[in-house]
User: Fold this.
Amino acid sequence: MSRLVAQILIVMLLTINGSSIAVAQSSPLRIEITEGVIEPLPFAAVQFATSSSAASDVAANLRDVIIADLVGTGLFRSIPETAFISTVTDFSAPIQFADWKAINAQALISGSVSVQGDQLTVQFRLFDVFASAELGGGLQFSGSMDRWRRIAHKVADTVYSRITGEDGYFDSRVVFVSESGPKNDRQKRLAIMDYDGANVQYLTPEDELVLVPRFSPDGRRVLFTSFRTGSPRIHELTIASGATRVLEESVGTMSFSPRFAADGNTVVYSLERGGNTDIYTLDLATSTTRRLTREPSIETAPSYSPDGQQIVFESDRSGRQQLYLMPANGGPAQRISFGQGQYGTPVWSPRGDLIAFTKQNRGRFHIGVMRIDGSRERLLTASFLDESPTWSSNGRVIMFARETRGAQSRASLYSVDISGRNLKSVPTPFGASDPSWSAGRN
Assistant:
């Protein structure tokens, strides 16, 4: 393990624990954490070498996306080209490490881009400057020209992984509810986009009211609640074909808040019947349902643990919304939230160690995280209305919906890391709510 990798790992572990500490070693690498603020790692990304004019524009765009991905994490800082002493014009040439050390670049990314017809090939190299060593060599991605953004995300994922030791999350998608029109006549339709807001596509028509989309583990299907039949019903949509089917059609009921189990074969959801709302499961292969709760209260927003053994959900059985855990097959539930205010929309981290939630207290909404036993609660945001948290695949970042106060306000998407740092807006063409982040991309 290089000193660069070791240093970043130390920083990230300290960030998770919310520490306030300065990190320094005898090596030239130095990252400081003060009151949860990290000094980002400075890196240089040179212009990728090209063999034709056809590749020049896409090479520049690739580099821009790679830089944006890394800088957007808050862990990296891009050194501007104006500070470069030298550059890398030959992909295979030796690196003049002294020139990059002089501008305090701790990591260096170089690459080459070639185009053959409609096929794009990207090679890149990653260097630990102070160790004068290569962290990744001979790395290559190929694809059609219209997939250049995805190739850029894959490069950034690899760089992120090589330096941090964790999986990247840039080559991923988000499904959400796109909102347009005036507040008293809001149109809501399903949409899907890259994690950074690019390549938006619409999945349902404008005249259909939809809510709460949720990705399948393989990223190929989406669960959502639709009012197309008059009452809220759970539907499943296959993204590639656009085909949909209704999953729950019990007479005199309303079904909502669906979520897949980790195996993608079971759905957990809420069903309202006779004025009472409980949590059920549905086996997609057999259409068999099973009732998990039997309380005279509202049980909703269920979310499986990554291992499929437990379910976290919200309930007002104590008199106000709180979070509870129960076995995946039902049984006694254990309350885990005990702070002031009301808790809702719990979502289990892909790592299995944290639960994200929405909290309402004293007229403010928050996105927070807690351990699965309810301890070490931390509020990451505060706003007029923050809700609907969803996790990146590596458990490092949470995306959520925020609405500001006012007659002209609209919901927008934001992301924040689990230390509460690096809050940033995620651009969408119209208003946006109810995000769901894919675990991967096919």
User: Anything to note?
Assistant: The CA atoms of residues 58 and 148 lie 7 Å apart.
